[in-house]
Amino acid sequence: MEIKRANEVKIDELVAAFTAGFSDYIVPIDTSREKFIAHIHYNDIDLARSFAAIDDGNTVGLTLSAIRGKMAWIGGMAVIPEHRGEGISKQLIEKQLQDLKEAGIEVVLLEVIDGNDKARELYIKTGFRDVRKLHCLAAESIVRPKDAGLLDSHDIQLVDWKDIRPIYDNDACWQFEPSSLEKMSGLLCFKNENGYGVFTHNGQTLGIISIKTSNHPASFMLKALEQGPVKNILANNVHDIKQIRQLKAIGFKEVLFQHEMELKL
Fold it and tell me: What is the reported pTM?
């Protein structure tokens, strides 16, 4: 078994290992080549600081890391089913953390879906601790809040991302940090005196990236839905407990949650 830097491995071999490694994951994941490359681009994955496990010339596992300042993020770790139970995950994460420490990184973040017990156990043994829960909720439509006075969509304006950036949530998860969002095209951004809403809308799904408002979050959702009908609405990585209650009250159901974990090097 050899551990190599991921930039020394052909991209298609990394994609194949990533796809096989997540083929039986708790939730379906789009592991196409296009999505893999987009993941690298949007989330600042550095293949020169990521690693692949090679066995007999084949890529059987990998770990992806991203760096922003003195912080790093593990953006995925996978081992193909045929090679699990051989200690490859342990070798990969130890090599990854050693390299990040040598690079001057002070804090490493990652997320693990609740129910992925083996992975979470490995991270805990490695020194990671839980920071918070990130909730994923979904709805097919919105049930209008009982107190209609909380809605103020009439004065919400469509704006550019640059108008949201100065007031954007500084406590967002890695994938929703400004460094990721500023690379995205087609963001829907709305603002009024009470707050803002940032969304994606692809004609099928309205994705809620962040809503911060002193009123009800449905205000911004209703405004975003004016851009066209969708089949479902997804709110990923929500960590505000009050907002989770508000979403559930208007028809959202929790799909899963992730443990955001942190290790100080």
Answer: 0.93
